[in-house]
Amino acid sequence: MPNPGYGSACRPPVKTPPEIVAKLHDVTQKALQMPAVIERLERLGVEPELMSVERFGNFVQDDLARTVQLAKDANIAPVD
Predict the structure, then answer these.
(1) Which domain holds residue 41?
(2) Does some domain include residue 2?
(3) What is the three-class DSSP state of 72?
(4) What is the structure's pLDDT at 18?
(5) Which of these, 36, 46, 60, 62, could form a disulfide with 41 (CB 3.0-4.6 Å)?
(6) For the chain, what is the domain count?
(7) Burial class for 52, CB neighbours closer than 10 Å (0-12, 13-18, 19+)
(8) Can you state the percent helix, strand and coil of the chain, rounding each to 5?
């Protein structure tokens, strides 16, 4: 069973041109569908979830918002 509280992703720098992000997305999606990659990830207990660039952006924003709220609820103050 996958751990829903953990994620990992390829994240280019913030100001990466959209055409480069699209190319990275395409080759990553293709790699994650290769039998050898699937087999290796399965052995590691990883279940990749293929997402569009937009969906991944929303996922990251939602995850950050949940993390910030969790820290606020736990009275954890940000540190510079």
Answers:
(1) 18-73
(2) no
(3) helix
(4) 93
(5) 46
(6) 1
(7) exposed
(8) 55, 0, 45
Task: Say if CB 32 and CB 38 are below 8 A apart.
Answer: yes
Q: Tokens 């990992």: give the residue.
A: 8
Contact 37, 28 (CB under 8 A): no
6-40 per-residue burial string, b: 16 or more CB within 10 A, e: under 16: eeeeeeeeeeeeeeebeeebeeeeeeeeeeeeeee
Nearest C-alpha neighbor of 62 from the set 13, 22, 12, 4: 4
**Is pLDDT at 6 greater than 80 in this prediction?**
no
Taking CA 23 as the corner, what is the angle to CA 30 and CA 18, rounded to the nearest 5 degrees?
Answer: 145
Q: Is residue 38 part of a domain?
A: yes
Residue 79 lies in a domain: no
- Residue 53 CB neighbours (<10 A): 13
11 within a domain of the structure (yes/no): no
